[in-house]
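Study both lines:
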Amino acid sequence: MSDYGVVDEFAGILRAAVARAAPGAPLVDLTHGVPPFDIVAGARALVRCIDHLGPGVVLAVVDPGVGTDRRAIALRVAPGPAARAGAPAGPWALVGPDNGLLVAAAERLGGIGGAVALPPASPPAGAERSTFDGRDVFAPAAGRLWSGASLDSLGNEVDPGDLVRLPEAMLVVGPGCVQAEVLWVDRFGNVQLAARLAHAHQAGLGSDLVVEASAHRFAGRLVASFADAGSDRLGVLVDANGQLAVVADRAPAAIVLGVSAGDVVVVRSAGAEAGAGAGGHGIPAAGSGGVPGGGGVPGGWRRAGWTGPRGPTDGEAT
């Protein structure tokens, strides 16, 4: 996984460097479309993927600090409850920069059983430092691990407690209200939230909802599928990753709401929204039907000026 994209040769060279270090190793590209320099997006993509990967080594590169004194690391995964119960083993090691990219995925697998700092690469002739650690540091280390090298043979031991960790996503649960950070907007414009169904139950959310973001405010409902949202409301469902997501039927909910990753969405029970103005759950009141300052009962999103169909673009919902 990387933010290298597929226009330049970087992703292909990364694959070639792994293949050179580990001939015969099967390679799976998770994505090379992480937004450039977006460590948080890369870390969350790894977490979404990690449960579905088989035995092997995860190589991840989102590394705006390349060429600086940030550490290059390899992590050994501690056996988790599933592994101890005899379930098929997942990835046993992760390799990448020590900038928060790897830790959450490793902890989801069962924890960090060990970590080492990888030695720096020799810079090209005439340069003071290497600027392609994916090729020169991470890929060779991943290949060696896959080929049977021990973690300790790759570098000096690092205390797992000293590794860089990213802040937790924002989530506030109150009576009749869930306020959650947007974790991810996929290419369909679905809005994944930092909340799960248990949080909706904890808040006592009903089936009829109000969905708010910034100055936009729409009627919504809890649904089981995208199509169940219908043409006049946003839907809130449990997505393929077990997170709550705001969706629309064959339309990008992210553009309807005007949100991207890192923004905040508020989901309220429709019966509780009348008393949830300024001071209610700490969220200012928004206008109705997606219009700032409108007040009253929120309207359907198609009636609020949506002209679709169109998909998310790089500037709107990535």
Notes: Residues 121 and 228 are 53 Å apart (CA to CA).
